[in-house]
Amino acid sequence: MTFSTLAMSIAESPTLRLNEQARLLRERGEAVIHLGIGEPKNRAPIPAILSASAKLSTGDIKYVPTDGLPSLKKAIIRYTEENYDRLVAPENVIVSAGAKQSIFNIFYSILNPQDEVIILAPYWVSYPEIVKMCYGIPVIVRPEDGTFHPRFEDIERVVTSSTKAIILNSPNNPSGIIFSDDFVAQIVDFCERKGIYIISDDIYHKLVFDGKRPTPAWKFTNKDIENTKVIVVNGVAKTYGMTGFRIGWAIAPRKLVEIMTNVQSQVTTCVAPFLQVAAEGALLGLQSVVEQLRLTIQNNRDVIMNELSTFTGVKCVKPEGTFYCLPDFRAYNADSVALSNFLLQRAYVVTVPGKEFGMEGHLRLSYSGSVKDVTEGIARIKWALDPNSPNEIYIGDKKMVRDWL
Could you tell me which residues come within 8 angstroms of residue 77 by beta carbon, excluding any fewer than 6 positions away? Predict the structure, then answer.
């Protein structure tokens, strides 16, 4: 039996693999704490639920336009004007089954075999794999100063005649940092002059802390939507805690949207209409739910930073957004995969290896759950690794004794 060489080269999603391992442990009755999860714990907004329910109750769930319901596109246009100060047309918008599909559609539509895409480490685990699936070559640029913030000089150095695009994700998954205005301005100016696409993945742009806010890449170009190389990706998954609804969108020049629509029509035809009206309900409903979620996550950020500050040998850059942090655990184990597996088996805590994000020796920790999960999860990690921590701990109703340090 033979399979596609390309398909076999695509890595398994580490977060989904860890989710499955955690599920199996829970089925055995183990008290697993999930600090690897990439979704908020809030309930979906009521307007989203009511809108989806009303659509379902009609029984009229049929095919809809491939590029999205006109009413949802209208809501996205309004959202874009309010949050980006840009007026776009319906023909500039395509709705997809999550921002992940939006990113795939973009790369499938702009890349030719061996085209290069610059990816800034630390990066979301799916970026390199999506590029490879579209026959492109990921070019990874890693920061050298430990801040997780890229330098323009390092990016400029790797640009070649084959460079087709660069991905900007700010606030950044997994580090939580926000790229500076000066950096984004340099990148936009450079890419507009060189004809390099900028894919701005803004999925976390509302989940920011301490009064900070990422400046949209669009602000730094004087080109209109039809001529700019800036492509914006967003969705309802993170901002509204609607990860299971799988609604994302891209805003791009009309010709590119036409090509992406053709691609999507041959893959998924359209996004389920009752999910689209749910997204519309969230976008047009009371936005106080977003602020409530943001405040909850900011509080959790403060809690996890306080807990990590008492952890001997662990260094962590303070996140400015998202619901992740990326502490450095090299004082205990430079192999993040081995360390993550160890913590799952010994402490029943799910973490994600930094290797998957291009930052070996680190672990991505999510603080999107409850304060109790955060505090107990960090306490278990300290117990498992730090010889200065107490030798005994209760995990669930079991008294555990550390006998490996």
Answer: 87, 88, 89, 90, 93
**pLDDT range class, residue 57, cuts 50, 70, 90:** very high
- What is the rounded CA–CA span in Å between residue 197 and residue 192? 8
Cα 84-86-91 angle, rounded to 5 deg: 120
Phi, psi torsion values for 93, nearest 5 degrees: -120, 135
Give the pLDDT of residue 125.
Answer: 94
pLDDT tens figures, 353-371: 999 999 999 999 999 999 9
SS3 content of the chain, % helix, strand, coil (to 5): 45, 15, 40
Helices (H), 46-194: 46-57, 70-84, 99-110, 126-133, 152-158, 181-194
Q: What pLDDT sits at residue 320?
A: 98
Ordered by start, the domain boundaries in the chain are 5-43+288-401, 60-284
Structure tokens at 74: 């209208």
CA 232 remoteness from chain centre: 14
The CATH architecture that domain 5-43+288-401 belongs to is Alpha-Beta Complex (3.90)
One-letter amino acid identity for 314?
A: V
- d(C-alpha 27, C-alpha 4), whole Å: 34
Given a contact cutoff of 8 angstroms between Cβ atoms, the answer to whether 152 and 191 are in contact is no
- Domain range 60-284, CATH class: alpha beta
Residue 373 structure tokens: 């999960």
132-165: string of b/e by CB count within 10 Å (b at 16+)?
A: bbbebbbbebebeeeebbbbeeebeeebeeebbb
pLDDT surpasses 90 at 79: yes
For residue 303, with 0-12 CB atoms within 10 Å meaning exposed, 13-18 middle and 19 or more buried, which class applies? middle
Which of 127, 22, 26 is CA-nearest to residue 352?
Answer: 22
pLDDT of residue 37: 84
Q: How much is the pLDDT for 56? A: 98
